[in-house]
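worker-03 picked up job from queue 'complexes'. Input manifest follows; two sequence lines, order preserved.
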Amino acid sequence: MPGPQKLEPSDAVLLRYLLGALPVDEAEPIEEASIVDEDLAARLNAMECDLVDSYVRSELEGTNLAKFQSWYLSSPLRARKVEAAKAIMLIVDGAEPGAVSVTSEAKAPVEANPPAAAKIAPTPTLSYGGRPIAARPGGARAGIFRTWPMLGFAAAVLILIVAVGFLTSRNKRLRNEVAETKKQTSELTAKLNEEHAAANVDSQKSGAPENLAHGLDNVATVTMFLPSPTRGASNVPTIKIPAGTGLVVLSLGLGSNNEESYRAQLMDPATQKVLWHSGVLRPGSDGTYVSVTVPAPVLRSKMYLLQLMHDAANGGSELLASYPFRAEVK
Amino acid sequence: MGPNQHWEPTEQIFRDLLHWLDEGTNSDGQRYLEVRRRLELYFDRKNCVAPAELADETLNRVAKKLKENGEITDVVPLQYCYIVAKYVFLETLRAEKRSPFHRPLTGANPSNLNGQSATLLEADAASEKKEKVAGCLDGCLKNLASTDRELIVEYYRGQQRGKIERRAALATRLGLTANALSIRACRVRQKLEGCIESCLKKHEV
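worker-03 finished. Artifact:
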């Protein structure tokens, strides 16, 4: 089966494609690659996200802005992406994004067929693996007030109230979660230490040779507690794995999750590939954590995401939480 | 739209299609959804009026071909889907009476909404709409994994220089390249967008 030929267009070419400014013969290979080529499809998506953001933040200008208004917004599906982006910006920025309404902006007459390639603004901002696309610094936030002076102001006030309320309640809840997580961490660490001490006593009582106990420690397990992820928890824990380790036991703080059973999968965040997945996992006796035993040979010295899932009633898997960690294999 | 317009795959044929698209793995239907999404984007970027229907039509034709042939081995599945999509598009081009394309927006054609009301784009209900969107976004953010929530907030925060620096720091912290980070952020963002859209549709019903 012949595979598709790899196409690597520049960011500028992809931008023109997204703005409907590419001639048919140049657009066709990109259309094909947007379906056939995983990398290009992902790159195009990411670029479209940032293009929409640039518009919402009033960072587009000139030909790009004109093409965006005349062509990009001509599709209701694409216009909905702009509206969704505005909503996301609203929460992220905590205030009204700068762009005017889709319908009112679209009423401005625009150039029918501009020479887009020649007019892409030169200021580099982001790159997607090709040459950078253009956007301009600053914004034209005043536009909304010229267009809808009263309605714009009223909407901005309303949005601010909603956003502040939302962020206040979220912050409060997150603070509680962080406090709870810290408590769980210290309790579980103490518990793990106790169990470890008890295991040593048992092995001595049973007359097990000391070197066998050390052998089990080294060959069998490295244990670590990963707290329930929260927005505020920004430090990625590092797990040091000595040479010869067979298993890595990760105790995952469950936070507010209280399912009867879970599954976990190990993902490489760079490639989004699942490297390993567990069987059914049961929470610990107090229901605050679940332990996952990962074969050490799966791990290299790099970042990982351990994703905790729950088997949903419809037969699918529901992602409950992701625990980032860095492995250091010695 | 052609002779296949009313043909629907049976459950078994649909399963065969999923299996074929998976190419030996088991994606639990995720691959099918991704291919359908790419096809919808393909038709939308060609300004077709009904990109979702055309994507479904394309996959129905692929499924029918699979049923007839038993297997398709001369091209990889995605390549074959593209070829079929191209045919579906060309047929749409010929169906002039259906006026299947959105026209560019100009002073004379300020909107392609064709009288849709109570949608995201209704300007005169802006504040009510934005309240709904904010409510939906709140719910959708809660449904995200906390790492995704943190990522999307961090990724989109700030303007220009500050934003670029923040993203570089975020990429370093997550052990990702800038390119991989933007792709991941976009995936989370699309998840959010889909959730907001479903939520708004529920409110409209």
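worker-03 released lock.
The beta strands of chain A are 221-226, 238-241, 247-253, 263-268, 273-277, 289-295, 303-311, 317-329.
DSSP finds nine helices and eight strands in chain A.
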